[in-house]
Structure formats: C-alpha cells, structure tokens
Amino acid sequence: MAQKVISKTHRFCGKRLLVVTFLITIIAIILVRILYVIWRTGKPLSKRAPQQPLSTLIVLGSGGHTAEMINLLLVLQKERFSPRYYIAAATDNMSLQKARVFENSLADSSGVKGISAEFMQIYRSREVGQSYVTSVWTTLVALAHALWLMIKIRPEVVLCNGPGTCIPLCVIAFIFKVIGIRWSSIFYVESIARVKRLSLSGLLLYKLRIADQFFVQWPQLKRKYPRAHYVGCLM
Amino acid sequence: MGEAEDGLKPKRVVFVTVGTTCFDKLVKALDTQEVKDELLRRGYTHLLIQMGRGSYFPTKSAGDDKSLAVDYFTFSSSIADHLRAASLVISHAGSGSIFETLKLGKPLIVVVNENLMDNHQSELAKELAERKHLYCARPQTLHQTIAGMDLGSLLPYSPGDATPVAKLINRFLGFPED
User: Fold this and answer.
1) Chain B closest CA to A112's CA: distance in Å?
2) Does residue B108 belong to any structural domain of this protein?
3) Is B173 in Cβ contact with A45 (below 8 Å)?
4) Own/partner pairs for A148-153, CB < 8 Å, 24+ apart?
5) How far is B135 from chain A, CA to nearest CA, in Å?
6) Fewer CB under 10 Å: which end of chain A, C or N?
7) Which of A47, A58, A75 to mutate: most B Cβ within 10 Å?
C-alpha cells in the first residue's frame, strides 16, 4: 500500500519534471530568439532583392508630427515604399486628411491611377492631459486594436515620429519579428519639438532597442543618446 | 511701413493662434489693457485672436485712433491666410504653428502654456529663441516682451531638409543610392 503511494508520487514527480523541463526549454528558445532579434535589429538589410517595394506603415500624430512626417515622405521614393498604410488616432481627424491630400497630390503629379495607400484609425492609449492611472485601461484597449490592425497590415517598414500611438504598433512589430510572422525595419524620427529630452515614446523605443534606426533633430539629443543619428531639422 | 501721409494709419494686424488647444491664459493676457496699450504703442492697429477650444472670450472692439481693433474666432481652415496678412504673430508653442509662421518670415512671439502636463513644448520655443528666430514669453510676461522686443534683431529661419533621413533609411534597407 505504502509502496503504491510512493510509486504514484514518483510518477507524478516525473511528469512534473517533464513539464518543467519543457517550459524551461520553451522559455529558453524564446529568450534566445528575442536576443537574436535585438542583435539583428539595427543591422542593415542585405539579402534582399533591391528593387522590390516594401509595404510601409506610417504612424501619424496630430499637429506638428504629421507635418514632419509628410516632409520626410516628400523626399522618399514612393515606388520603393509601397503600399503605404497610414494610421492616426481615432480622435484625430486632421492627420489622415492631410495624408489623403498628400497621396492625391502624388497621384496627380505622377499620373498613376489609383493610389497604393490605405488610411486607418486607431484608439489612442492616452489623450493629452489624461492621467497616467486611467491610461492603463485605455492602453490595453489600444493594444488589442493595434494588434488587429497589425495582423491585417504586417508591414515591412514602420515609420514613426513621436505620437504615443506608435508604441503599441512598434511593440507588435517587434513581437512579429520574434515569432517570425514578419521581419520589419522600424525607423523612429524624434519630433523637432524635442530638443533636450526624448519623448516617452522615443525613450522606450531607444532603450528597448526596438527601433532599427533612431533619428534626432537636435545635437543636444545626439550627445545624450549616442546610438541616435543626428539629421538636422526636418521642418 | 510707418504712418501714411494723410494721417490714416496702415493696417497692422497682430494675429494670435492657439491651434487646437485651449489657452485661456494667453487670451486673458491679450485682453488686458497693459498688452493692448503696448501693441498700440508699437504701431499695431488690429488684434485678431484664434482662440481654439478656449472658453474665455475677449472683448470685441471696433478700434479707432486711440484703441486697438479686437476680433476673435475659434477655428478656421485659412490660418495660413491670416498668418500671411499679419505683421506680428503671437502663437502657442506647437511646432506646427511655429514653423508655419517662421517659414512665412513673420516676426513671432511664442507664449508657453505652463498648464500642459507634459510641457516639453517650451524646449523648442526656448531653443529657437536662443537662436534668435523668435521671442519666447509666458502669459504674465507678454506685455514686457512686446515692450522690449527688437524685431530687426530676429534672424530668418532657413527651412530644414529631410533628405539626410531619407538617405539613411534607403541605405539601411539596401536600396541603391541615387
């Protein structure tokens, strides 16, 4: 009787050991993969057919952010970054409108019928002035919505320049890299409004090494964050 | 500019813009006699305020030889036209308004809103003020800034350029340089 109990315990222990070993292996694999992705992030793409266009996600923010982004888009070769997906906060009606005007002007000047651009709205994690406490819940909702949009888009290039909405999108792009759903290159241009300190979005993407290339517009920031590229003013 | 021969003052408009924000402190400061007198003394004839989401309405006035004409509106799709028509621009610290004004070569006073939770915007205004592209003020010190400003000492702003970023992005993605 006593022996039976012992052997049962043994068998139970053995099973538990197996599960634990399995879990440790999985975690180890994920960790190694994350470390690989972090190591690989920031290294230029090489094995790629050079003329193949890349699907591009462009994260827009209200006010100055969109103006800066459009200044950048003006000088990027449109045929290389195509199709283009624009995302702006659901509370922000102006930015997508500006992006539409920009895309229409492209279509007019190039004479190409039908533009390879899509425009989407996303819930914001935090409105200007909202407290950090209630931000937790709204951030979760924003995250779920961001995941849905990202599954649909699966971009190869992400361009963002400061609004908080880019954080969930960039984190998901990073997770896609880890899981192997889609490899993407994330470019972050810190807003011209940031002279001495990075924005929270910028700081997160810099510190977590999520951004492949990180651009700043003022020399003071380059001195503080040496991995950033100083590119002068975009405006 | 200056006064016309027949004694009729040429129209010199001060355009105030707060963008999509609420900046009652600035509108209140503009509504004080102190600021209006100072603007009149500096030769301005009209004060036009774009007050955004603010809830403080300034007192309208038709204006005459001894007082400033004051008018306001909340939003407009033709901010650019108002900027172009202005002799002096007073703006909130949003980068959009700042650079739109600087590109038009208009003299600019940026008033920093100290009520914003994440008040990073003063950084840009202060940096550009140090580089002599504009004046930077707080609502309480606006009249002093207007009294003491020397618009001739402001330096024109040369617009920036996004090609360095585009080059780096293209190189990173393995696109050939052109």
Assistant:
1) 22
2) yes
3) yes
4) A149/A87, A149/A120, A149/A122, A150/A176, A153/A55, A153/A57, A153/A85
5) 16
6) N
7) A75
Q: Which residues pair with B16 in a beta bridge?
A: B49, B90
B30-77 confidence digits (pLDDT tens): 999 999 999 999 999 999 999 999 999 999 999 888 899 999 999 998
Residues A34 and A57 in one domain: no
Assess contact for A202 and A162: CB atoms under 8 A.
Answer: yes
**Nearest chain B residue to A63, by CA:** B96
Co-location of A102 and A131 in the same domain: yes
Structural domain range at position B48: 13-172
Q: Which of A89, A74, A48, A73 is nearest to A185 (CA)?
A: A48
Into how many domains does chain B fold?
1
**A70/A165 same-domain check:** yes
Enclosing domain of residue A223: 53-230
Which two tokens mark A147?
A: 């995941």
> Using one digit for the tens of pLDDT, what is the confidence trace for A104-161?
998 888 766 556 899 999 987 666 667 777 878 887 887 889 999 999 999 999 999 9
What's the half-sphere exposure (Cβ side, CA atoms, 13 Å) at A200? 12
CB pair distance less than 8 Å for B123 and A234? no
**Is some CB atom of chain A closer than 8 A to the CB atom of B160?**
yes
CB contact (8 A) between residue B95 and residue A192: yes
Using a CB-CB cut-off of 8 Å, the residues of chain B touching A125 are none
Residue among A132, A195, A213, A215 with most chain B CBs within 10 A, to mutate: A195
* Number of residues that make up chain B: 178
Give pLDDT tens digits for B146-166.
999 999 999 999 999 999 999
Question: In total, how many domains does chain A have?
Answer: 2
C-alpha distance from B73 to closest chain A C-alpha (Å): 19
**Same domain flag for A158 and A206:** yes
Tell me whether residue B4 is in a domain. Answer: no
Q: Could you tell me the CATH number of the domain that includes residue A120?
A: 3.40.50.2000
Over the range B50-65, which residues count as b (16 or more CB within 10 Å of their CB) and which as e?
A: bbbebeeebeeeebee
CA pseudo-torsion sign A78, B96, A87, A47: positive
**Chain A contact present for B164, CB below 8 A:** yes
